[in-house]
Structure formats: structure tokens, C-alpha cells
Amino acid sequence: MAQQARAGRRYLRAFVSGFFVAVPVTVTVLDRFACVARVEGASMQPSLNPDGGPECDVVLLNRWSVRNYQVQRGDIVSVLSPKNPQQKIIKRVIGLEGDFIRTLGYKNRYVRVPDGHFWIEGDHHGHSLDSNSFGPVSVGLLHARASHIIWPPNRWQQIKPSLPPNRGPLDTEEEEG
Predict the structure, then answer these.
(1) Would residue 81 show up in a list of annotated catalytic residues for this protein?
(2) Is the pLDDT of residue 4 over 80?
(3) Catalytic residue among 91, 128, 131, 147
């Protein structure tokens, strides 16, 4: 009986010590490297949630890749909403600092993206709260880059940067000519 009690305490001690190692490691991984997010709504259709049904896409968000606030045009990113800092939104990067953008309903038809900002839009225009509503977004609000669709299984894939047709920065030579 005493031998069973010692074995039980040994297992309990191993579990507790493992727990106190696993929790900080898990928190660090989720805080610094990657996490998952459920994409709800129609704003990123057809890239994400193409069917618009009850089953939402789940994406892997790579936090490590944006640690220096480096994004490229076409990346799908997660940012803290400029309208509601308690909410994270997922949109596509259309323009980077210094780019001239033709807007889709913003207060100015053309905008130069200021330093330290980028221009984001949902792929489903008219169903998206994005830079066309609130303007350029500070890079300080950048949370992560979506790198893979991990759910549902039939949509497993890497997310590659791409710009929708007729979106992106204006060619300055085109403007002048």
C-alpha cells in the first residue's frame, strides 16, 4: 500500500512539474510564433469562406513573420481593428507606405499611404469594413500573417500573397502620363 502511495505521489509530482513547464512554453509559442483563428463573415470571400456556409475557415496565423512589421502586397494579415481595438480583423494588404491607392469609397478618391501605415481591404468589396472605411492602418496594429488554411480539411493549403485584379498601388508613371 505504501509503495502505491509513493508511486502515486511520483506520478503527481511528474504531472505538476510537466504542467509548469508546458504552460509557459505553450503561452510563449502562442504569443511569439503562431496561433489559429476562425475567419467569420463574407469580407474575404472568395479567398476565405468561399461557400459562405456555416462552416468557417480556420487559418494559421504566423506571428513570428511580422515581428519586424514586414508585410508585402497581397499578404492576408490579422490586425487589431482601428474601430474596435478589442477585435481582430483579417484583410489583404493592398498598399504599403508611400504607395498611391485608388480607393473604393474612402473620403478621397486617391490616397498616399503615409509612412508607418499600410492599406488593407477585404476581397469581397461592399461586405468589408476595411481601409475604405477607416483609412490607412498603422503597422503597430499588425498582429500576424495568415500562412495556411488548416480547416476544413478539404481546403488545407498554403496562403500565397496575391492581389485581386485592378487592386494595388497606382503606377506613378501612369498617373503622370
Answers:
(1) no
(2) no
(3) 91
